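From the shared-data thread, chain only:
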Amino acid sequence: MNDFTRTILEKAGVPDLLDILDRRISSSELNSLLLALFDRKTAQLSPADLMRNYEMNRLVKPFDLDPVALKALELDLFRVFAGAGFKPIELSPVSPLGACSAIGKVDQKKVVSGLRGAEVMADATNAIALHICQLKKSRRPGPALLRFSAVERHLRAQPPPMQGFTAHFKAGCLVTSGRDTGNLQFEKQCLTEHVRTWDAALRAVAGVSVIRVNLLPREGYADPGFSEKLRLHLASEFPDIEITLTSSPTENHYYQGIQFKLIIAANGREIEIGDGGFTDWSQQLLQDRKERMLCSGLGVEFLFRLLGRRH
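Structure, as tokens:
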């Protein structure tokens, strides 16, 4: 518990209030309690209060560039995704509460938590993973590989990474789900498909291409040669793209085995435009260690701000 929270509890005169709410009442009861509280709080708001809150809240400001041009770019992306076999999906603007923190080990404080067991969309790959796992539970057997794509507006609670950016942003996502069939077949095939699809998408919407894929070893695979095998495989599949591999693993519990970063050349410099990696989310959600999943994302809005449309 941080000092700010402790001060609030002392002000309320109930220092163990968090423990009471956490341990003694259910999630549905807490939701009902908070709904009643917000009903009281909003009843006290005047139009002037609402205007003041809007001016002060950085989470609620609109997108500041041409939305028509951005929508056209999104449509072109979906055409590339669909052509590569990644089924486009339009997700809900909210995910189940804990969609990022329960399986992806993301700090819940970085997510805008809501009522009714929901949180504002913070990572579409987690939402797609949940959708895929529900499909797998409801209709076995299914296709050997499930491929989905999305372009969604995300909202993060932490400050934007650069000045001039809003707290919400558009990102494109690809997710592939399958099963371990041995010899790293899933990993090699799906990693190749993701890199190829993102390269095609960048060429189609911005007139640039991936010049380098940087691989970062992560924990989660027992094979000590896992990273190098994938590097060699990508190098053979993409002779015109530089495939690099970091020499030592770094701390990261989000991805399993390997993380990859997509680098383009723009405005005279190298820019990291997207990343991805293998996750154990489907293993956790389906309680099946044979499950495999690859997720990747690209900063669509960042790309739009950087390059616009080049065709």
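The chain has two domains: 3-44, 59-307.
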